[in-house]
Specification:
By secondary structure, the protein is of the alpha+beta class. The protein has helices at about 35-40, 55-65, 115-120, 125-130, 140-150, 150-175, 185-195, and strands at about 20, 65-70, 75, 85-90, 95-100, 105-110, 135-140, 180, 200-210. The strands form two sheets. A seven-stranded antiparallel sheet has the order 1-6-5-4-7-9-8, sandwiched between helices. A hairpin with a 4-residue loop joins strand 2 (about 65-70) and strand 3 (about 75). The protein binds flavin mononucleotide (FMN).
């Protein structure tokens, strides 16, 4: 798959203007009460054409992995030994980005629309190819495995990915966006499609977009 520095070979328009996108600071007050988000949360697999705003992308990334305590760089998500094995990628129609929690920014990782390939790797699930955003959680195990051993490290990393996903999906709900957790995919095909570096293991896809219908 094409690195950001080269033109994409699939489909594509390279409209990203910069390799780094600074995200708007998160909104830290107000919003939908947690109980309301919990009560409304549902897996939603259909998306309106409307593209989420950069503010919404920033809020979702922050909810997933954002820094909330500067000195030790602690995050919204709990982490075994604060080892933070989860890396968050954001798949957009024109490229793939990696979230940097410290800078609260996105770095372009790939150019072009990889969503058809991602859908293909995920049992051809339409939600994966149609969502204007698809968050990908990938695990890097070296720090957590060094501290807890490989088996325990894997377990802790997977548990943490669940925390990250739930943070992100509840935030999506609170923003009145639709989202669904997707675990059914072929790991190596997703890793290849996203051009993940060796040692990064994709474990969860989270397609997100504006809902076509909201029942409540
Ligand atoms: C680990 C995990 C993997 C999942 N994988 C998929 C998936 O591949 N495709 C999908 O459409 N939904 C997937 N789901 C969502 C479930 O289908 C959904 O949560 C369940 O039907 C309950 O519905 P609700 O989330 O609306 O309450 C997954 C959920 C979990 C927790």
């Amino acid at each position: 798959m094409t690195p950001a520095s080269r033109m994409a070979s699939v489909n594509d328009v390279d409209v990203a203007t910069d390799d780094r996108i600074d995200l708007p600071g998160p909104s830290l007050l107000g919003g939908m009460p947690l109980v309301e988000a919990l009560n409304h949360r549902r897996s939603r697999r259909e998306f309106a054409v409307k593209t989420p705003t950069l503010e919404e992308v920033g809020q979702l990334c922050w909810a997933a992995e954002g820094i909330t305590e500067g000195e030790r760089a602690l995050r919204t998500v709990p982490s075994a030994g604060a080892t933070y094995p989860v890396t968050l990628y954001v798949v957009k129609p024109y490229g793939v980005y990696r979230y940097d929690p410290v800078g609260h920014c996105l770095y372009r990782h790939l150019s072009g629309d990889v969503r058809p390939h991602l859908q293909n790797a995920a049992d051809d699930q339409p939600a994966v190819g149609e969502a204007p955003l698809c968050f990908v959680l990938a695990l890097e195990l070296s720090a957590v495995a060094a501290r807890y051993g490989r088996r325990r490290g894997w377990r802790y990393a997977l548990i943490e990915a669940g925390h990250v996903a739930q943070n992100l999906l509840l935030q999506a709900e609170a923003l009145e966006l639709a989202g669904v957790p997707v675990g059914a995919f072929e790991d190596t095909q997703v890793a290849h499609t996203l051009g993940l570096p060796a040692g990064l293991h994709p474990v969860y896809l989270l397609p997100v977009g504006a809902p076509v219908y909201r029942s409540t």
